[in-house]
Design brief:
Length: 377
């Protein structure tokens, strides 16, 4: 949907003073962020992928550790995926790490290790969408390309008083305002404004360089823009996990298949409870379906609650004994019997890492008890 003639006139009227005011504000108030110290294309790329759906303060330390471990695209492309996931562990949205790893290999083999500069070419790489491509093109290469994330959407929705702007409208507005001489700083400044002043609640309008221009501010309630989106009901699932211990004290863990959610991460096998099942019944069924083994289910070790983007879970971990069958991967990528120290070295999602911490303490206490084989029905 194109912008109305009225809004186009408004944008044109502020094409000179709008960017200059914003850039002056950014020069004075920009946060000291590690990826701003050396803006190579690779460093900008890694930062923008990490920042997808993740707060800046969360990303800081992960970014430093990632760059220390994989300082170049060559180092990232040559790394094992498991090593990449381990460094990423805890940051969430692990598909980003898998895509970044695949894209590094593409850049190395198809582009000689040099990230392409044009937004259209960047979008062909795994894990790079319209926003990330625009951000890399403008920040790393100085190419005037719009990058509209949630912060930019909120700023422009308020400035133009658009309750439900289409992406094309916002990209058009950015193209009109973006100065050819400073596309990168303009992109960063616009995102910074949304992150620090033009926040979803309690925006600091008086400190905003665009306050005098902002239509929503003049209307008296900027928080009405953009209009709140209707929230769907978030489903909840009960999930059971088996801490299956062998006679030598090693614990059975499995690696999720690459195409599955949390692909490449290690976990304690298990799954969702189905209607009418008890949690132990769900565990016995899941271990048969996933790994072709029979287990006896014993005491509950811990309960972990976690919210994902589209659903929530309550995860119950049980002490289990391996009873019969030869473990095999019917619905996993790999498995191993691991000591607590070996589990520490494996990449795990936050839920399984919490279980692993409990298991380590439980085993070290000397009070660990397992169900008798006879308890299996």
């Amino acid at each position: 949907m194109p912008l109305t003639p009225e809004l186009l006139t408004d944008l044109a009227a502020h094409r000179e003073d709008g960017p200059s005011l914003l850039l002056a504000w950014f020069a004075a108030h920009a946060r000291d962020l590690p990826w701003r110290h050396e803006r190579t294309p690779y460093r900008v790329w890694v930062a923008e992928v990490m920042l997808q759906q993740t707060q800046v303060e969360t990303v800081r330390d992960y970014y430093r550790r990632f760059m220390a471990r994989f300082p170049t695209v060559e180092a990232l492309a040559a790394a094992e995926l498991e090593d990449v996931l381990k460094v990423w562990e805890g940051l969430g949205y692990y598909s980003r790490a898998r895509a970044l790893h695949r894209a590094a290999q593409v850049v190395l083999h198809d582009y000689g290790g040099q990230l392409p500069s044009e937004a259209a070419a960047l979008r062909k790489l795994p894990g790079i969408g319209a926003y990330t491509a625009g951000a890399i093109a403008s920040i790393a290469f100085g190419i005037p390309a719009p990058a509209v994330d949630g912060n930019v959407r909120r700023v422009l929705s308020r400035v133009l008083a658009l309750p439900a702007p289409a992406p094309a409208e916002l990209e058009e507005a950015v193209r009109i305002l973006m100065p050819e001489a400073a596309p990168g700083p303009f992109t960063e400044a616009l995102m910074e404004l949304g992150a620090t002043l033009c926040r979803p609640a309690a925006p600091q309008c008086e400190a905003c360089p665009w306050c005098g221009w902002c239509r929503a501010y003049r209307m008296g309630d900027p928080t009405q823009f953009p209009a709140p989106r209707l929230r769907k009901a978030v489903p909840h699932y009960d999930v059971a996990a088996a801490v299956t211990v062998r006679e030598d004290g090693r614990v059975l863990v499995a690696r999720r298949r690459p195409g599955d959610m949390l692909g490449g991460m290690w976990e304690f096998p298990g799954g969702k409870r189905q209607t009418g099942e008890t949690l132990p019944e769900a565990l016995r069924r899941e271990l048969q379906e996933e790994m072709a083994i029979d287990i006896a289910v014993g005491e509950q070790l811990t309960v972990v609650k976690h919210a994902y983007t589209h659903f929530r879970i309550t995860l119950y971990a049980f002490a289990c004994r391996w009873v019969a069958g030869v473990p095999q991967c019917l619905a996993c990528d790999a498995f191993q019997w691991a000591t607590p120290a070996e589990m520490q070295a494996l990449p795990m999602a936050v839920t399984d890492r919490k279980i692993a911490a409990v298991v380590e303490t439980w085993l070290a206490s000397g009070a660990a008890t397992l169900p008798a084989a006879a308890t299996i029905p």
